[in-house]
Amino acid sequence: MKDYQGYLIDLDGTMYRGNEVIDEAPAFIQELNKRNIDYLFLTNNSSKTQAQVSEKLNQLGIESNQDNVFTTSMATAKYIKQHYPNGRCYCIGEVGLFDAIEREGLTVIDDSDCDVVVMGIDRNISYEKLAKASLAVRNGAAFISTNSDNALPTERGLMPGNGALTSVVSVSTGVEPQFIGKPETIIVEQALEVLGTTQKNTILVGDNYNTDIKAGINSGIDTLMVFTGVTPFEAYESLPVKPTYFIRDLSEWFK
């Protein structure tokens, strides 16, 4: 095993499931700190702000500050700022998405007469919200979604993710969105810039083959797969492209 200068670490299914900590996670982060290895928590969950994610981690006994949290909402807002700096955004999502959009100085409107439709997880989704988004996309608005996760690991089990919600607008309009989160390279490229490491000396840690591991593969960085979340251990043999490393849980990594 090579030494890595930076770790990109998934949250849901890797550090915790819903509001329950994964037992091996706190010690894993403590070991990174002990070895002075830089890391960034990289999450596809767009619902919380950077500060809220950090607070949750600390409450679960996982050492964190908001500077080592990078969310798909933050990556989405940066992408929109770069490509549609003056665009008026109609947003479906929760506080994490709205906070990130506003921090980038973008304009948010509650109207289908917009330039950009932005979708993130919304546990208060309604037909009217989906209708406005669909009308806007049909009228030519750019269609951007924070992530394509169809399922979200929670203490209750796998719940509908943002990809499932986004599919309603996509199926209705026939327009595929630009996804920003894992497995896309956009969020990984931004995260590497924030972390200050390179592809060669960074590893991505995650539980979901179709998002976390594929993000590493697509971005040309090494991957460490754990089986504490979405992808079961029994699926390993059938994975088309194997992760660089795999372990059942994080307690095995530094042994």
From TrEMBL:
GO molecular function: metal ion binding; phosphatase activity
Cofactor or coenzyme needed: Mg(2+)
Keyword DNA repair attributed: no
Family matches, as InterPro entries: HAD-like_sf, HAD-SF_hydro_IIA, HAD-SF_hydro_IIA_hyp1, HAD_sf
Keywords: Hydrolase, Magnesium, Metal-binding
One term under GO cellular component: cytoplasm
Active site: 10, 12
Binding site for substrate: 182
Membrane-traversing stretches: none
Cofactor binding: number and manner: Divalent metal ions. Mg(2+) is the most effective.
Residues engaged in binding Mg(2+): 10, 12, 207
Pfam family, one: Hydrolase_6
NCBIfam families xrefs: HAD-SF-IIA (TIGR01460), HAD-SF-IIA-hyp2 (TIGR01457)
Family: Belongs to the HAD-like hydrolase superfamily. NagD family.
Name this protein carries in UniProt: TIGR01457 family HAD-type hydrolase
Species for this entry: Ornithinibacillus hominis
Organism phylogeny: Bacteria, Bacillati, Bacillota, Bacilli, Bacillales
